[in-house]
C-alpha cells in the first residue's frame, strides 16, 4: 500500500542553551513552552504544531546525523501584517535581517520578514494578508 504525507506534526531543533532558546520563542513569537515525557523534555507549542528542543550534547535518540544548532531555516505563518511583525521584533530587541519582502508560500503569495533566533537559525515570518 502506498502512503502520502498529510502534514508536519513536529520538528526537532538542536540548540546551544535550551532555556535561552525556549525563552526567546516564548517572548518573541508567543509560543507556549511545554515540559513532557517525564524525562525533562521541552517543546514549544503553537497552533496545531510543536518544536521539540534538544540541547546540544543531550540530544534524544534517535536524532539527525548532523544535529547542530543554527542549521534550520523555518517559516512561520503569522496572522498579522508584516509591518506589525517588524514592530514586535523591534519591541523585543530583535534585528530584522530582511523584509518585508514578497515571496511565494505553500498556498500562494506571501510577504515575509526575516530574523534570527539565539542560535542563528533563520526565522521567516510570513503573512498571507494582502494590502
TrEMBL record:
Top-level taxon: Bacteria
CDD domains: GLOD5
Residue span, VOC domain: 7-128
Short name of one Pfam family: Glyoxalase
Protein's recorded name: VOC domain-containing protein
Organism: Acidocella aquatica
UniProt lineage: Bacteria, Pseudomonadati, Pseudomonadota, Alphaproteobacteria, Acetobacterales
Amino acid at each position: 500500500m502506498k502512503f502520502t504525507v498529510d502534514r508536519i506534526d513536529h520538528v526537532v531543533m538542536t540548540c546551544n542553551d535550551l532555556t535561552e532558546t525556549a525563552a526567546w520563542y516564548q517572548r518573541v513569537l508567543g509560543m507556549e513552552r511545554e515540559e513532557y515525557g517525564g524525562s525533562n523534555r521541552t517543546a514549544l507549542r503553537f497552533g496545531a504544531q510543536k518544536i521539540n528542543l534538544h540541547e546540544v550534547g543531550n540530544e534524544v535518540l534517535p536524532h539527525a546525523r548532523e544535529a547542530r544548532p543554527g542549521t534550520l531555516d523555518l517559516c512561520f505563518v503569522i496572522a498579522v501584517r508584516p509591518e506589525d511583525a517588524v514592530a514586535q521584533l523591534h519591541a523585543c530587541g530583535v534585528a530584522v535581517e530582511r523584509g518585508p519582502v514578497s515571496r511565494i508560500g505553500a498556498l500562494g503569495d506571501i510577504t515575509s520578514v526575516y530574523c534570527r533566533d539565539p542560535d542563528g537559525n533563520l526565522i521567516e515570518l510570513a503573512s498571507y494578508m494582502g494590502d
